[in-house]
Backbone:
C-alpha cells in the first residue's frame, strides 16, 4: 500500500499547480475562509507527508522550535494529533495550561500570547465551549502575535491552527473528508453522493456545534448532496448555513434541511449522526458562565438534558442503516461516540453498527495528524512543492 | 572508567551471538516470557548504549516519533527513566493522562490505544495497582495496536514496554540484576550467591507485588540461591513461584521459602527487604474498586494496616545485616524506601544501613533508563549488533 | 535589524576576551557570585544566540539530553523561557512536578535529584516562596548531583540554573538589564543613569523579594545611580543591600535608599515599580508553613493585606511619570503587573502608563530565553567562542 516515489512525485506535481501563497505565514481558522486551491493543497500535502512517513522518509523541517498547544477544553485525540504533527515536522509541544472552563479576556490573552511565543513556530488552540468566544479568543491571539512580530518583540510570527472553536473544527472535518476521498477512491467520486449530517441523542449535554457546522461548511464544496437534520430547537448557526448554501450552489451540489433522521438517512451514501447542544442553550450558557451564575448553570443543564431526552429516538439503529443506499452507507463519527449498551444505556448509535465500522472510524481519525501537519507546512513554506521535492530527494530515514 | 572502542566492539560481538529475532517488533511483558538469549541481549544492549553515551557517542536512531507513556499509578523515577530512554533514542514522550485509580475497560482501551498511536513507536505502561488488571490492560493495548496495524489504521505498530504491572516489573528487576552483574564483576560470579528477597514492614498499604515476583522470577535464572521470606498471609502469586522453581532447577540454583527474615538473611550475599501487600488483600481491593464500594475499601485499608503492624519486627536492622555473609551483604531496594527514623517512625530499614548503601542504591537505579532503551532498541532493529556497529563507527557526538 | 555575519563575528571576538572558564560545568545561583567578565559573557552569548536564530542559523548543540524543570511556584513565562532555551540548544524539557507550597527536605531532595538526573544536562529550579529555603534547596540539589557525579552514579553533572529563588532572580534581572543595554544603545550609555527600584501597592500578598534584590544586586555593577524606595517595614535582605553598596562603590555608581516613591522617581531615567512582601512577613510565613499552622497563615495574610492597603498611594501614576527625566523614564516590570482599572481596582500602575510601555515591556521579557540559553551554553562549553564560531561557520538552518 506504500506509495512509490513516482506516485509521490505526481502528487507533488499536483500540489505545484495549486495557489497556496496566501497560506504562507498565515493562520487557519475556518475552512470557508480558504480558497478551493488552499483546501486541496491541505489534502495533497497531508497525503504526501503520510506517504513519505510510510516510506520511512523524514519530513523533519524544523531543527528546533516550539508548538504551543492551548486546550481550553479536555481532549485526548486532538492533543495527540497536534503533538504527532509537531513532532513529525521537528517541533516540540509545550502545553499552555490555562484554566479550563474560564473565559479568556483581552489584555491577559494578548500578553500571554506574546510571552509564550518568543520561540514558537505554531500555536494550536482548542476553545469550543463558549459560543461567541472561541473564535474571538483565537483572533485575539493571532492579532497579538502579529503585533508582537511587527513591533520586533517576536522574531517569527507563530502560525495559528484552529484545533476546534465554537464555529468550525477544520482539522476534524478535513480529516473526515480526506477519509471520504480515500474511501470512495477520489474526490471526483464524491460528486452527487448524499451525506446525512444528523443530530443524535446523547445522555450528555453541551457538546459543541463546531462539527456539524464544519461538516456542512466543508462538504458542500465538493458537489455532494448535504442534508442536515435535527430536532426542533437544535439549529446550528445561521451564518454557517448561509455558507453551506452558497458552497452547494457553486459546487453543483445541494444543501437542505430535513425534519427527521429517517428522511436524512434515506438513500444516504454517508451518515454522520452526532449529538450537539442547541445554539440558544450554548448562548445562555456562555452568558451564565461570564456572570458566574453557577446555580442557574446547573438549572440550564437539567433543562437541557430533559429536552434532549425527548429525542431519544434520534439514534443510529440497524433499522435506519438499512434504509441508506444499498443498506451500507459509510458511518462516520469524530469519536468518542455514545454507544447504546456500551458506553451508555441509550446513545447516538447501536453497538452493532458502531462495531461494524470500527476500522473505517479509526482510519477517519488517522488523517488528523497529517491534516494538522499539512496546515503547518503550508504556513511555513512559500514553495511547499519545492520543499517536499527536496525532502523526497534527500530521503533521510525517519528510523535510521 | 569509560569503555574503549575495542571493549564496545567486543560487547557488540557478544550481542551478535545471541538470538534476538523474536524481540523484533514485539512487546516486553514479563522476563520469564523471554529466552535466556533475549534477557542477555537486553543486558548487553543496555551496557553498550551506556558505554556509547559515556563516550559522547549519539545513539539517536529516531529522527522523529513519539513514546507514549501511560502511568496508571504515580511515579517519578520510572517516568524519568522512560523519558530518558526515549530521548536518548530520539523519541519524544507524550503522556496519556488517564485517571489514576480507575480500572480501564475493554472498548475504550482499544479505541484510545489506536487514537494515540498514529505516530507512536513505543508505548510504556505502568498499571500495577489492581491484581488481575494491569497485565490484562497491557495485553488489550498490545492486541488493539496489532489489530490497528493489521487493518491499515496504524502505519507502524508501537512496541509495548511493561513499566510495571500487577505481575512483573521487568525494567526494575533487570536494572537490579544488571547492577548485580556490575557489582560482583560478571554474571558468572553470581552463581551460588544467596539472595534474600524478604517482606519488610512499612506504615503504608497496598504496595504492589510485582517487585518480589519479578525478582524471584528473574534472579532464579542465573544459578543463584534465591530465598523468599514473608509473614503468613503475604504470599506472592503461586504461578510466579512455580516459574521461580523451574528457573532454579534449570539454572542449577535454588528457590525456597523460609518463615523468617532472620533465616533469609543468614549468610546472604544480597538482601532485598521490601514491603508489599498480601495477594488476597489486593484481590479484594480490586473487587471493591470495581464495585465502587469505597467505604469497604477504607475498612480494608484499616484492617490491612493493622495486620501489617503485627510484623514491625520485619525490618532490616544493623543486627540483621551482621548475620549476612561477612556482615556485608549488598543491600538492595527499588526506592523510595521507608526508612526508620527518617521517612517514618518504623519502616523497612534502619537509617544507618540505608545510608551506608546510598551509592550502590543510586547506581542500581541508574541502569533503568538503559534497560528501557535496550528493550526499545531490540524491538525496533532486526540486526541490533549491526545497527550498534554503525552508530559506533559514525560516532556522531551527543554534545556537539 | 538582523545582525550580519561580520557583526556576529565581532561579538564572538568580544566574548573571546572574557574569562569564562569558571562557568564551565558550574551552576548559576546569584549574579553577585559571578565576575564582571562572566556577567558580560552571559549578555554576549545571549545576543549572539539571538542573532544566530534571527538569521535562521541552528545553535542546536545537544543531539539528545534532558533539561529538568522544577517549579515550586506557579509560572508561565519562566516555564516557557526555560523550555524555549532548552529546545533551542537541543534539550527536551521534563518537568519534575513536586507539590507546590511544600518545603522540601534534605534526604528526599538528594535522592530525587539523582533519580531524575541520569540523563539530565540541566536542572532549572524556581523556588521563591520561602525565605531561607529556596536557595538552600538549590544548593542541596547542586551538591547532590555533584556527589552523584563523583560517586559514578551520574555520567554527567547537570548544571543548575536558578530560575528564581528567595534571594535572587538572575534570569529575570539579566534579561531586564540586557533590555536596558539595547534600549539605551550600549552598556556604556547606562553609566550615571538613575534607576528607581520602588515598591508599589498590589492587592495580592506574598510576592517574592528576589526581583528588587536581584535588581539592586545587578544594576549597581554598571555605574548607575540605583535608588531603592519602599514603605516602612518592606525592607529587603540586608546582605543584598551590602552587596549593592559595594558594587556601586566599585563601579563608580551609587546606591541609596529613599523614603518615598516621589523622591525615587524624581529625574529617574528608568523606573521599576513593583510589589513585594515585607521580609519579616516572609520569614514568619515560612515558619508557619513548616509548622503546618494554616489558621495562623490565614491570619498573617489578612494582616499583611491590611498593612499593604495603607500604601495604596505607592502606585505608578501618570503624574509620577511626569516627574521623571524629561517625563519619559523607561517603565519596567517583570510581568504580570497589577494594573489599576484593568487587572484590579487599585494596583501597581496606571493602565495608561502600562499601555504606553507595552512594546518595551514585551521586549524586556523576550531576552529571558536567551539569557537562560546563554547560562546553559557557558556551563557546557569550555571554549564558548570557539563553539559559536563553529556554529556560525556551519550555518545549519533552523528551519530547513
Residues:
Amino acid at each position: 500500500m506504500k506509495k512509490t516515489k513516482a506516485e509521490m512525485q505526481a502528487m507533488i506535481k499536483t500540489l505545484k499547480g495549486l495557489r497556496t501563497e496566501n497560506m504562507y505565514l498565515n493562520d487557519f481558522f475556518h475552512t470557508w475562509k480558504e480558497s478551493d486551491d488552499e483546501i486541496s493543497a491541505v489534502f495533497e500535502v497531508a497525503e504526501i507527508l503520510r506517504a513519505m512517513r510510510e516510506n520511512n522518509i523524514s519530513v523533519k523541517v524544523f531543527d528546533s522550535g516550539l508548538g504551543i498547544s492551548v486546550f481550553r477544553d479536555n481532549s485526548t485525540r486532538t492533543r495527540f494529533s497536534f503533538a504527532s504533527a509537531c513532532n513529525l515536522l521537528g517541533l516540540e509541544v509545550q502545553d499552555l495550561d490555562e484554566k479550563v472552563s474560564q473565559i479568556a479576556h483581552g489584555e491577559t490573552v494578548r500578553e500571554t500570547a506574546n510571552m509564550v511565543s518568543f520561540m514558537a513556530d505554531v500555536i494550536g488552540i482548542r476553545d469550543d465551549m463558549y459560543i461567541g468566544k472561541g473564535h474571538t479568543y483565537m483572533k485575539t491571539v493571532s492579532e497579538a502575535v502579529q503585533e508582537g512580530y511587527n513591533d520586533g518583540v517576536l522574531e517569527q510570527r507563530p502560525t495559528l491552527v484552529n484545533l476546534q472553536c465554537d464555529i468550525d473544527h477544520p482539522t476534524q472535518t478535513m480529516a473526515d473528508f480526506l477519509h471520504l476521498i480515500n474511501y470512495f477512491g477520489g474526490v471526483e467520486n464524491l460528486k452527487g453522493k448524499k451525506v446525512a449530517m444528523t443530530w443524535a441523542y446523547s445522555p450528555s449535554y453541551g457538546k459543541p456545534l463546531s462539527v456539524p457546522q464544519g461538516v456542512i461548511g466543508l462538504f458542500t464544496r465538493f458537489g455532494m448532496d448535504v442534508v442536515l437534520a435535527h430536532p426542533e430547537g437544535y439549529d446550528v448557526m445561521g451564518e454557517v448555513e448561509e455558507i453551506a448554501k452558497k458552497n452547494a450552489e457553486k459546487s453543483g451540489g445541494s444543501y437542505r434541511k430535513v425534519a427527521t433522521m429517517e428522511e436524512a438517512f434515506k438513500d444516504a451514501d454517508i451518515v454522520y449522526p452526532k449529538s450537539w447542544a442547541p445554539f440558544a442553550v450554548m448562548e445562555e450558557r456562555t452568558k451564565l458562565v461570564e456572570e458566574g451564575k453557577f446555580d442557574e448553570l446547573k438549572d440550564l443543564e437539567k433543562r437541557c438534558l430533559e429536552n434532549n431526552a425527548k429525542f431519544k429516538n434520534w439514534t443510529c439503529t440497524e433499522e435506519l442503516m438499512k434504509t441508506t443506499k444499498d443498506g451500507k452507507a459509510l458511518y462516520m463519527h469524530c469519536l468518542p461516540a455514545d454507544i447504546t449498551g456500551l458506553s451508555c444505556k441509550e446513545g447516538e448509535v447501536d453497538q452493532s453498527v458502531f462495531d461494524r465500522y470500527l476500522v473505517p472510524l479509526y482510519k477517519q481519525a488517522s488523517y488528523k495528524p497529517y491534516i494538522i501537519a499539512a496546515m503547518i507546512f503550508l504556513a511555513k513554506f512559500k514553495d511547499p512543492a519545492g520543499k517536499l521535492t527536496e525532502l523526497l530527494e534527500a530521503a533521510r530515514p525517519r528510523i535510521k
